[in-house]
Amino acid sequence: MPIERKLAAIMFTDIAGFTKIMGDDETTALSILENQQSLI
């Protein structure tokens, strides 16, 4: 029996200073997060 193989890709992204931004201005932080998600 042939072995069935599948490829997978895992991507990790980071937003520098996100915790501080979230503490300072949650609306801006969520906007940045939505923008980053739209790029992917």
Automatic annotation (TrEMBL):
Source organism (scientific name): marine metagenome
Record protein name field: Guanylate cyclase domain-containing protein
InterPro entries tied to this protein: Nucleotide_cyclase
